[in-house]
Specification:
Shape: elongated
Largest sheet: 3 strands, antiparallel
Number of helices: 6
Strand order of the largest sheet: 2-1-3
Helix content: 55-70%
Structural class: alpha+beta
Order of helices and strands: EEHHHHEHH
Strand content: 15-25%
Radius of gyration: 19 Å
Distance between the termini: 24 Å
Number of strands: 3
């Protein structure tokens, strides 16, 4: 079972977001953020990776082991940060769009979390 945050919007309906590490954001970082409309976060992640690329070139030219170590640490930590924060960032975006948190719930899937969070009258209609 997984924990989901279930949100409701008056017009757009229900949405369930898992409270877990996002492997997609870990693997694709700024691309994931941009694809989900998180432009500020995408920009920050892009600048971080571009900065590490510049540091890598500089470290190679200066033959600096410490700078290479800093780049390696950055390349490990930035994707971890993105993966750990991704779903939280997405939840904040939903709240800015007018979604309201209905409840946190343990469920097998997003659909079952949404069904459990809906009022009984709405479950009968669907």
């Amino acid at each position: 079972m997984q924990v989901f945050r279930v949100y409701h919007h008056e017009r757009k309906g229900y949405c369930a977001i898992p409270v877990t590490f996002s492997w997609a954001a870990f693997a694709t970082s700024f691309l994931w953020a941009a694809a989900n409309g998180l432009w500020g976060k995408a920009g920050i992640l892009f600048i971080a990776f571009a900065g590490m690329g510049a540091m890598l070139v500089t470290a190679g030219q200066l033959n600096s082991q410490m700078m290479l170590l800093a780049v390696a640490a950055g390349l490990a930590l930035v994707p971890l940060w993105a993966g750990m924060q991704a779903n939280h960032w997405y939840c904040e975006r939903l709240e800015k769009q007018g979604y309201k948190l209905v409840k946190k719930i343990n469920a097998e899937s997003a659909q079952s979390a949404i069904r459990s969070a809906q009022p009984k009258e709405a479950r009968r209609k669907s």
